[in-house]
């Protein structure tokens, strides 16, 4: 059975190829096409997006869509798809989606939206993305927030079902989580995480003796360590959290590039609060994130979020939905995954030729060295970054993060 999208697409392409719509001709409006094919405007908009990405048509602001002609001077610079190898591919593609959103002129994007959890189109698109990476949740459990920082802030503010008060974090960890805790003067505990993971005996002691509200953790592709919990460790962590009535906040910021299942995949107790960011796969300035909440916590979370912003930016939500639905998110993720794998391979190749290396771990964009037993650390630190911001106490001067091949070679040459 032919879908409406396929029907409209075939009709427009045929009209262009047989000359019914010549280069430079204006296409029928979105409203006209929706009426002609008895469908909604979103369906027509999706077809036009596809045709635009395939270079059949281009858009003029406040005017409509026109048949593409590569020789026509009127075509706006940057309309055609950039080469997939260009580093700013995400910026260009997302700009197209943003323009498409504004051209559509849906009234609800400029008013209050009936669904506080987020734009339904985006929630559905995100749910599909999550399923691809091993996160299976009901649509209503997904909430779109104005970035991970807003989600984390709300989690630190609301009362959890366990009625506990302290936050547990790994060290090292995400610097802005540390800032969030310290700025609010929240009660917290820390547990050390090294290249071999955490001490589960120590973790159980903390769960048992402290009033831990939630444990903030980066199980996959940890920043800055680059390491991941294995399935046995993930299952053990969840069972321990259930035993001692502790919630786990899983920050899965590299979900699109990890090879193993997330912590949430193993959760059968409703203990894991899953947090997904889009900044790594698109660009940092896109302040949108998705959080999957246990039902026991959702109403409290939503009540607090309503006090902050009610609706997360609807125009950005619609643009992101288009970006995902039209395959651009997947395309850019594959591009980045290839680049990360190439960078890792280069780092491994450089390190393979070096004897007597200090302990190290590989991340997607860097190598982390433990220089605690090296005498010339003051010289070596010029080739990398120290990680004071990743620790609550600014006394960890021995870790050095080296971020590119040139610096890595200079670092190794100075050992």
From TrEMBL:
Pfam families: Aminotran_1_2 (PF00155), GntR (PF00392)
Domain HTH gntR-type, residue spans: 2-70
Molecular functions per Gene Ontology: DNA binding; DNA-binding transcription factor activity; pyridoxal phosphate binding; transaminase activity
Cited Gene3D superfamilies: Type I PLP-dependent aspartate aminotransferase-like (Major domain), Winged helix-like DNA-binding domain superfamily/Winged helix DNA-binding domain
Keyword Repressor appears in the UniProt entry: no
Keywords: Aminotransferase, DNA-binding, Pyridoxal phosphate, Transcription, Transcription regulation, Transferase
UniProt KW Transferase keyword: yes
Family: In the C-terminal section; belongs to the class-I pyridoxal-phosphate-dependent aminotransferase family.
Protein name: HTH gntR-type domain-containing protein
Organism listed in the record: Streptococcus agalactiae serotype III (strain NEM316)
Lineage of source species: Bacteria, Bacillati, Bacillota, Bacilli, Lactobacillales
């Amino acid at each position: 059975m032919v879908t409406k999208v396929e029907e409209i697409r075939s009709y427009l392409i045929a009209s262009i190829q047989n000359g019914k719509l010549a280069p430079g001709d204006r296409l029928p409006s979105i409203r006209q096409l929706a009426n002609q094919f008895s469908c909604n405007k979103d369906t027509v908009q999706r077809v036009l997006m596809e045709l635009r990405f395939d270079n059949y048509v281009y858009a003029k602001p406040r005017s409509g869509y026109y048949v593409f002609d590569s020789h026509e001077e009127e075509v706006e610079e940057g309309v055609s798809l950039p080469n997939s190898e260009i580093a700013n591919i995400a910026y260009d593609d997302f700009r197209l989606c943003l323009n498409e959103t504004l051209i559509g002129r849906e009234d609800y994007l400029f008013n209050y939206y009936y669904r506080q959890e987020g734009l339904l189109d985006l929630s559905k698109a995100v749910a599909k993305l999550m399923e691809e990476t091993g996160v299976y949740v009901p649509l209503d459990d997904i909430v779109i927030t104005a970035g991970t920082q807003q989600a984390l802030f709300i989690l630190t503010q609301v009362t959890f079902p366990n009625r506990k008060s302290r936050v547990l974090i790994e060290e090292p960890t995400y610097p802005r989580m540390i800032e969030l805790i310290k700025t609010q003067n929240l009660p917290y505990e820390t547990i050390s995480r090294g290249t071999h993971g955490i001490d589960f005996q120590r973790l159980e002691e903390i769960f048992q003796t402290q009033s831990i509200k939630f444990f903030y953790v980066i199980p996959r592709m940890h920043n800055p360590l680059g390491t991941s919990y294995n399935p046995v460790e993930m299952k053990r962590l969840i069972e321990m959290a259930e035993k001692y009535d502790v919630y786990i906040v899983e920050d899965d910021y590299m979900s699109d590039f990890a090879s193993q299942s997330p912590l949430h995949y193993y959760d059968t107790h409703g203990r894991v609060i899953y947090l997904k960011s889009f900044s790594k796969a698109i660009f940092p300035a896109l302040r949108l994130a998705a959080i999957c909440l246990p039902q026991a916590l959702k109403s409290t979370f939503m009540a607090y979020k309503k006090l902050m912003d009610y609706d997360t930016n609807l125009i950005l939500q619609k643009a992101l939905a288009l970006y995902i639905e039209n395959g651009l998110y997947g395309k850019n993720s594959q591009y980045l995954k290839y680049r990360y794998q190439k960078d890792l391979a280069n780092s491994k190749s450089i390190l393979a030729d070096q004897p007597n290396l200090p302990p190290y771990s590989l991340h997607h964009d860097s190598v982390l060295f433990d220089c605690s037993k090296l005498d010339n650390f003051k010289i070596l630190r010029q080739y990398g970054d120290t990680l004071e911001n990743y620790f609550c106490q600014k006394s960890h001067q021995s870790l050095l993060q080296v971020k590119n091949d040139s610096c890595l070679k200079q670092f190794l040459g100075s050992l």
